């Protein structure tokens, strides 16, 4: 059988059509797919894409593309440019946000490609994949990065410790500009002791060890800065550390305030200890005073007893003197009677009269002496009474002094207890 040239061309065209149809069918059944008119109206859509949006096919055929978009996106210049360029035959590729039937965001990684016949765009096909989950993670990560960048000091180092980048918070914290730190080594922020104490710092980081804690650093002006920071190793797809990101918070004021508090606590502890020592001394003094007061009270008691006994004896003597005075008076009366009788007896009673006169004079002197003794005893009694009252006052004052000393001792005991409590508390704070 002989074949003409036309037959060969028709056969080739037929094979291409079969191939294209098979290719289209494969894409249609395997990949989310939708077709639009050049004006953006939906001509066809497969089940994969319908499931992504939650629609049935009859709900979307004939509807415009904007029905799958959020209203605020449709009015943008980017949206108008998309369809303008598609109608010009220019394909569009990128990540697009669309709206599902339930009004939720659907993120698509998609390609719009126009179908051109005889130089005219007859339809626009779109192949897509759902990247909503990846986009959510990306947005969450980006939000986290943005939040960290706004609130914390962030700086990137290469594995050797050279600065790759630093955010404004870090630069402001240290007083540098970007050109001052880029490509410079981490040691520019440290004092001379840091690398002597941590010689393997960057080797440990590139080995995957995370460093976190409180770090003392030096700013541009040589002032100390205290950072609460974390050095985080970042790995590539091969598991190799390619850089170190440091996230830090400037807590210099907090550390300085804590140091001042610690210093004040140390002073307060010293004062509290001195107070305890002084209270102990005061306590000893009060105890000695109480002992002395007890002795005074005891001595006053003995004096009071002795004076009371003296008063009793004075009364006894006064009673005896009173008896003697009575006897002297009677003797004087008898001597007077004897003198009268002697006078009556004349010469015979003259000797008896002399004796009676002597007895009368003796009785008079005895009575006179007794009166003097009584006067002295009464004066002594008055003095003893005054001494008794004075001693009673002293005893009362001593008792009151003892009570007050006991009160003072109790107060000092409380001061000692409180001072000990303060000392223990302050010692804990100063640790």
UniProtKB/TrEMBL annotation:
Domain spans labelled PAS: 39-73
Domain of life according to the entry: Bacteria
Keywords per UniProt: Transducer
Protein name, as recorded: Methyl-accepting chemotaxis sensory transducer
Residue ranges constituting the Methyl-accepting transducer domain according to the UniProt record: 243-431
Gene Ontology biological process terms from the UniProt entry: chemotaxis; signal transduction
Gene3D superfamilies: Methyl-accepting chemotaxis protein, PAS domain
Domain PAC: 211-263
InterPro entries: MCPsignal_dom, PAC, PAS, PAS-assoc_C, PAS-like_dom_sf
């Amino acid at each position: 059988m002989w074949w003409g040239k036309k037959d060969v061309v028709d056969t080739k065209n037929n094979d291409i059509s079969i191939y294209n149809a098979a290719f289209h069918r494969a894409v249609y059944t395997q990949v989310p797919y939708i077709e639009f008119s050049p004006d953006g109206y939906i001509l066809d859509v497969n089940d994969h894409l319908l499931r992504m949006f939650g629609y049935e096919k009859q709900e979307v055929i004939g509807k415009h593309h904007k029905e799958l978009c959020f209203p605020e996106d449709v009015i943008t210049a980017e949206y108008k440019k998309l369809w303008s360029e598609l109608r010009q035959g220019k394909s569009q590729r990128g990540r697009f946000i669309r709206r599902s039937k339930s009004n939720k965001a659907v993120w698509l990684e998609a390609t719009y490609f126009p179908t051109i016949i005889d130089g005219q765009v007859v339809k626009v096909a779109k192949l897509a994949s759902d990247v909503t989950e990846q986009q959510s993670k990306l947005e969450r990560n980006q939000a986290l990065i943005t939040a960290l960048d706004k609130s914390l000091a962030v700086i990137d180092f290469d594995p050797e410790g050279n600065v790759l980048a630093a955010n404004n918070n870090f630069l402001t914290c240290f007083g540098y500009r970007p050109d001052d730190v880029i490509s410079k080594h981490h040691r520019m922020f440290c004092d001379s002791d840091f690398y002597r104490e941590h010689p393997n710092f960057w080797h440990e980081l590139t080995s995957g060890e995370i460093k976190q804690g409180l770090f003392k650093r030096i700013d541009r002006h040589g002032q100390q800065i205290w950072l609460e920071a974390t050095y985080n190793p970042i790995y590539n797809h091969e598991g190799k550390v390619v850089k170190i990101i440091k996230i830090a918070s400037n807590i210099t004021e907090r550390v300085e305030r804590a140091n001042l508090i610690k210093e004040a606590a140390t002073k307060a502890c010293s004062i509290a200890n001195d107070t305890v020592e002084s209270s102990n001394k005061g306590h000893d003094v009060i105890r000695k005073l109480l002992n002395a007061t007890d002795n005074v009270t005891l001595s006053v008691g003995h004096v009071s007893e002795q004076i009371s006994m003296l008063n009793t004896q004075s009364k006894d003597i006064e009673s005896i003197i009173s008896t003697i005075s009575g006897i002297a008076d009677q003797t004087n009366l008898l001597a007077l009677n004897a003198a009268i009788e002697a006078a009556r007896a004349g010469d015979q009673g003259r000797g008896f009269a002399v004796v009676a006169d002597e007895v009368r004079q003796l009785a008079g002197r005895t009575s006179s002496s007794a009166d003097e003794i009584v006067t002295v005893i009464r004066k002594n009694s008055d003095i003893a009474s005054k001494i008794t009252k004075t001693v009673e006052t002293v005893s009362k004052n001593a008792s009151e002094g003892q009570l007050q000393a006991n009160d003072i001792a109790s107060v000092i005991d409380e001061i000692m207890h409180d001072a000990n409590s303060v000392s223990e508390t302050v010692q804990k704070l100063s640790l």
